[in-house]
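Q: I'm writing up a methods section and want to include an example of the input and output format. Could you take the sequence below and give the corresponding predicted structure tokens, formatted cleanly so I can copy it straight into the document?
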Amino acid sequence: MKDNLFFSQRDNESSDFVPIISADEDDELIFNEENDLPILPLRNTVLFPGVIIPITVGREKSNKLIRDVYAGDRLLGTFSQTDMSIEDPSEKDLFRTGTIARIIKILNMPDNTTSVIIQGVKRVQLKEMVASDPYLLAKVSVLEDYTPADQEFDAIVRSIKDQALKIINMAEDLPQEAAFAVKNIEKPDFLVNYITSNSNLKTADKQSLLEIDSIYERALKLLEHLTQEIQMLTLKSDIEAKVRTELDKQQKEYLLNQQIKTIQDELGGDPVQQEVEELKKRSKKKKWPKEIQDAFNKELKKLRRVNPATPEYSVELNYLNVILDLPWDHITQDNFDLEHAQRVLDEDHYGLDKVKERIIEHLAVLKLKGDLKSPILCLYGPPGVGKTSLGKSVAKALDREYVRMSLGGLHDESEIRGHRKTYIGAMPGRILQNMRKAQASNPVFILDEIDKIGRDFRGDPESALLEVLDPEQNNSFHDNFLELDYDLSKVLFIATANTVGDIHPALRDRMEMIEVSGYLLEEKVEIAIRHLIPQQLENHGLTDKQLVFSKEVLTHIVDNYTRESGVRTLNKKIAQVMRRVARRIATKDKYNVNVKVEDVKGYLGVQDYTKTEYQGNDQAGVVTGLAWTAAGGEILFIETSLSKGKGKFTITGNLGDVMKESATLAVGYLHAHAEMLELDADVFDNWNIHMHIPEGAIPKDGPSAGITMVASLASAFTQRKVKNGLAMNGEITLRGKVLPVGGIKEKILAAKRAGLKEIVMSEQNKKDLEEIKADYLKGLKFHFVSDIQGVLDVALTKQKVVNPLKMS
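A: Here is the clean output for your methods example:
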């Protein structure tokens, strides 16, 4: 921004403006254009006609010139240099338009420099240079100014005068003498020249104005420059006002803070200092490593230096509070009474023997060794079987703190590792937040729904969990907010999941996988009696004298109103019954204290499910298979129908690619081994095959229905009955081998619920039965086979169905 309009400092051959108004600007110029005129080059300034300015003479040639001219007629020509850096300018270094000036006074200054006061007289045009030594001499021609005499020009001049006065008032560094000078100039051309000469325009802009012959045009151009200058000064004034207001506000806040500090000192001390002292006092009670103590002291010193009014103070204070709130080396004492632990686990959960056994083993080793890295367990199985609630029981059995973190839908790794503390509102990750909540470094930490973590463009939290769940790394867990290593090795992590396949392989490798399978009907009834009913009685304000469930009623509810591996829906149904009973008690309506089977419909409505039961062996081509779902095991039926045709094969039932391939394998195998069933191979070319697997709306896939499809096709082509009460499960190969499948326990439970008595499966699945409780296997007969021939030997009877098809 420009310094000011008037009285600007001129370099070298100029000095501060002296406000002199000359009466000689109209003196007649006595100069013969035939004579040579001494030329004085000017740097950083332009002289206008009528204007008096002082200049400092520094060059030897210029010094000699003014002495010689002053001794003569005192007239010289002033021309501005095109390049200010040239010390000895020639004709090509000067503008062509200049001013004839008269020397008024030469002054010898105390610092041995010479100043000369000159007044512009007329504008001149440089014609040619005639000499350069001892100073420049040139031929010039006088230029006349054209001054119009009309109202428009008078208005422009008045505007120039008003704008100039406005600038003088707005610029704080301009003296009032400048306003006095402007007000007392009457001649328009001199006013224009005077203001132009003393403005803060660049030398090139002033030279452009000097070269304009018409005073009218020169005045218009000057008015434009003055308007721009006022805009700049207005902007400068606004900025200074804003800055001044901000400074005033800061000074006011400072003074108020000082007053508050004085008042606080009188009342008993500075709260900020008290806060710092409180933090220091809390730190002395902490049990933490030396490096943590050093880091805390460093941050505390930083807090002392921060202004409490700034956002950084709250960030630093929050960080120190997090450090103090974390338990670090504080641990709770484990209860090593194994009998107590077993009793607590049995009281809270029915079944789940594998999990209970693993916890007791860990406790036993910890009791003997005194120190052991906690295992990282993963309980997987269908919903509602008690995986999450088991964590509370484990914490209770060990006398440890309990914390739970739900991972379902988590998609940002900063939820695990936290944000850097430099961000406003930053927090540690949820791992450390839960440790802060637990107030112990060895809690039982439940990582719920670990198979439902999101993984997309927003982040990959599963990768962040790799460090948390690695026993070799989690003793130095790094949180972005804390920026200090935290030991998680004493934490007993228990993860839960419904589907193992959805867990990242690297994460799965770090955990000890324990399957928690579904419950038998008898187990569900027992769980309802032991846990669900007492809990719901308490929730609904009832007592065991007001409502009694028999095992028969509970069995009816499980069979007809639930279809799950766990007991979550069963719990809801029991709660629904109790709400209806509570309403009847509140309205004093009659009801049966001992709930009967016929009462259930009144409480729960029409039954939700029809029990999937074995449907007999009266039809050829219908075989019972076993399937695994996320909710547990199910039975399904493979139905095969034949019709006269050209051997077309159709398969329906919303099947996946793997299941369709199994059906194709079954047809291909039987076609290749027709003699095994005493069939003519041509029969496959004369009959169309339609295989269907109900229920059509439910997607199905997997290889485990392979032997069931073979048996269904064999029964259809031979029109022989399938053995009564038989289910089967196993994958087949093109060579006729039977391969093992998974989900054996759930499938066995499904067969038992459906009333089946015999199960055919692969020889290699025999080992899976050894891990299943004897109660689950009671009443079932197993046939272990290694090839398709063995399946057909067990499955097909010699008896034909009623009204068999004639295959010949």
